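We close this part of the discussion by returning to an individual protein. The amino acid sequence and the backbone structure tokens for this protein are reproduced below:
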Amino acid sequence: FPAEAKRYVEKTSCDYNAAQAIRPFLTYPDLFDKEWAERTLLAERLQAGKLTLAEANVQAASVHSQIAEDEQRRNLASRSVNAQEAAAAAAWKSTSCTRIGNTVNCF
């Protein structure tokens, strides 16, 4: 949060509205929403005097790190599934079957 801004809720709302332009292009829009919801709560607490600017910035950085970890965890899980699917597809493609009369041999 910028030190010179005293209307943190209004500033966060403005920033959120501007950031909405990128939301449709995000892989995980729910994480985007979660981070902005947390930032909005922090802005409200900061403006109400329940947090210092330093505390709000530390908490905002912590939320951002948690969101980044969640995104990384999802990406790794997705890559693992993709690798398993690719391996299964490769194994399936390597199987060939021949028919001789009433007998089918696959190898």
Notes: The radius of gyration is 25 Å. Residues 53-93 form the longest helix (41 residues). Strands lie at 97-100, 103-106. The mean pLDDT is 88.
